[in-house]
Specification:
Chain lengths: 353, 294
């Protein structure tokens, strides 16, 4: 009921906004509106990218927070787009682009010549590289924490409560690796008819030991901070922030999933051209290097490492550092575009069993 | 022309009065139409559209074909029924005690009952999370006091969800029950005593039946509100308690269309209306909700 009310509210807000004729209007290109996911992540974006870039371009920036692409879809379909730039996960952006609710990016304006291969797409330019890692409570396991997905599944060697993702994204790959599939063949197996079922069967095995199915990065960080579970999958940067905040947590890049966040322009954005220039600005190496100071997500622009502003020791802790990247499996967006709906249905089915 | 009122004049007056009353009610009607009927109608329409915009039953077909949806609907009704039952067991005696108190004391206690209303549901729900988790207040104290040795699984499951739901729903049960109890004429109980009934017997034979309409109204309100719960299972259910509203949110995030989620909403709405209809057949719902119909 709450949710339904919320939609009605949003729909009304959209109607009202449209009725007012958008007082600011598209002519006002001195201000860009950017929307992201909030929390420690958006704080890092704001301090390292949005505010400095806006200052450099002599424009004002307005920040908003949203929960995901579904919110953008509502705005686009209602013809009342107020956001210019949308921060998104790579997978959601790929699907949103295919759906037609994002503007195609102009890579003559945005320079991606020095980007890590595969960290930009037609509708979204990579902003940072993150990993879905295996993290554990150092109070429970000390220095001898689990080091692989097989360990995550080994409840005899590592007794304790687990937390796993409630959504299917990034959930099937670890299960297959735990089941003995080499990282390089995970997506090949997942693309076969039996592949998804095999992964889900493996997760079902672990289900009695999964205390919480987490729904957001803020949640899995909180779970570790509160000591609610002993072992969890999640986004590496969140754990580092939680650790700074006193959480007893460590994680490994071994067998982690390498993925990236990106920036897109909403279809029908009020200030499309200005937004494109803004994306070009924040894709430059100095901004990307600065971003890593706030959260342990790596740059997509390789030049950022060459500036010398990222300390060598610190660079080694970032997901996209060559030593770390070599241990990981890169998320296959094509697989998600093709199979996510089907896999999600099977996953939800497993959750309700 | 005669000044004497005649039949036609009376009719005219009656019509004018009705129009006046209708005019008074018009703003509320328009509000309901714009904020309720239109959006729901829109969702209803969307649920019959396929991804390519053609008319289709594809979203309903999915609800039937995938076993998870059936399980979620069953779970939603089960959880709502359990929460309602707990509310009745906890709320009825409390309302009874309140109804026996002098009015001034009862009003004071009522503030205590209503207090939770003044805090947002989200805040209350997170507060339960803090209290009930593994290293939360309840478990820490329970272990320190030697009441139990291992942390109890109080949250991130059905237990936690029910605790949160009952806490939110209890006032919705107590208010109508208390109201109907206050309306019971004490003379009936005196008459029962006069005829030789023990207080217990008088309660079961006289007081309880007279308070049933209020209890029924409260239970129905609680049950129907429970069906639409979203925040509480999302925060306290640990992803294991999935109710229809949670699945609606999930489908919107996963599927790139509104139809899938709309279909779920429509089915929940229809099922809720069936519950209301059956309830109104079984009892005199009009009277329960304060009308004085027969």
């Amino acid at each position: 009921m709450t949710r339904r009310k919320m939609f009605a509210g949003q729909a009304l807000a959209v109607v009202v906004a449209a009725g007012c004729g958008m007082a600011a209007g598209p002519a006002d290109a001195q201000q860009l509106t950017v929307v992201s996911f909030g929390g420690s992540y958006q704080e890092a974006q704001s301090k390292a990218l949005f505010l400095p870039a806006a200052k450099a371009m002599g424009i004002a920036i307005k920040e908003e927070t949203y929960t995901g692409i579904a919110d953008l879809r509502l705005k686009v379909k209602a013809g009342a787009v107020t956001w210019d730039i949308v921060a998104s996960g790579s997978g959601s952006a790929a699907r949103a682009g295919a759906e037609g609710i994002l503007e195609k990016l102009d890579y003559k304006v945005v320079d991606v010549a020095n980007f890590v291969p595969g960290t930009y797409q037609d509708y979204c330019v990579g902003g940072d590289v993150f990993s879905t890692v295996l993290a554990w409570n150092t109070k429970t396991y000390g220095d001898k924490g689990p080091q692989s997905w097989a360990d995550f599944w080994d409840v005899k060697k590592f007794p304790g409560k687990r937390s796993y993702r409630k959504a299917v994204a990034g959930a099937l790959e670890p299960a297959l690796m735990a089941d003995g599939v080499p990282a390089g063949e995970v997506y090949k197996v997942l693309s076969t008819p039996e592949g998804i079922a095999r992964a889900i069967k493996k997760i079902k095995e672990l289900k009695p030991h999964i205390a919480v199915w987490w729904a957001s990065g803020a949640q899995h960080a909180q779970l570790m901070k509160d000591g609610e579970v002993d072992m969890v999958t999640g986004w590496n940067g969140r754990f580092d922030v939680a650790k700074k905040d006193g959480a007893q947590v460590a994680y490994t890049f071994n067998q982690a999933l390498l993925d990236y966040d990106c920036y897109a322009i909403a279809k029908g954005a009020p200030n499309k051209d200005q937004a494109m220039k803004f994306l070009a600005e924040i894709s430059k190496p100095p901004y990307q290097a600065e971003f890593t100071k706030y959260i342990t997500y790596g740059p997509t622009n390789k030049k950022a490492y060459e500036l010398g502003t990222i300390e060598a020791a610190y660079a080694k802790t970032l997901p996209s550092h060559p030593d770390n990247a070599a241990k990981q499996l890169t998320i296959d967006l094509d697989w998600y575009i093709k199979f996510e709906e089907k896999a999600s249905a099977a996953y939800q089915n497993m959750l309700t069993e | 022309m005669s000044d004497r009122p005649n039949a036609a004049g009376l009719r005219r007056d009656a019509l004018r009065e009705r129009l006046g009353l209708f005019g008074l009610g018009l703003p509320a009607l328009v509000l309901v139409l714009v904020t309720m009927i239109l959006p729901v109608g829109w969702l209803f329409w969307l649920s019959f559209l396929a991804d390519d915009g053609s008319l289709s039953l594809v979203h309903y077909q999915r609800l039937v074909e995938q076993p998870s949806y059936g399980r979620i609907f069953r779970a939603t009704f089960e959880i709502s029924a359990i929460a309602t039952a707990i509310c009745v067991v906890l709320g009825y005696p409390l309302a009874y005690v309140l109804a026996q108190l002098p009015l001034r004391a009862a009003n004071l206690c009522m503030i205590g009952v209503l207090m939770p209303f003044w805090t947002s549901i989200l805040v209350r729900t997170y507060a339960w999370l803090v209290l009930l988790q593994r290293q939360g207040l309840v478990n820490t104290w329970g272990i320190k006091l030697g009441l139990w040795e291992q942390p109890l699984a109080l949250v991130h499951n059905l237990n936690g969800t029910l605790i949160g739901m009952v806490h939110i729903m209890l006032p919705f049960l107590i208010l109508p029950v208390y109201g109907s109890m206050r309306a019971i004429d004490r003379d009936y109980l005196k008459a029962a005593a006069n005829l030789g009934a023990s207080p217990t017997r008088a309660f079961w034979l006289v007081f309880l039946p007279l308070s049933l309409p209020g209890l029924f109204a409260g239970a129905l309100i609680v049950f129907i509100l429970c069906l639409g719960f979203y925040v509480t299972p999302a925060v306290l259910g640990g992803g294991k308690v999935i109710m229809v509203a949670n699945r609606i949110a999930n489908d919107i995030e996963i599927f790139f269309n509104w139809g899938a989620a709309s279909a779920l909403g429509v089915v929940l709405l229809v099922l809720t209306m069936i519950v209301l209809y059956v309830a109104s057949r079984l009892t005199q719902l009009g009277r329960v909700f304060g009308g004085h119909g027969t």
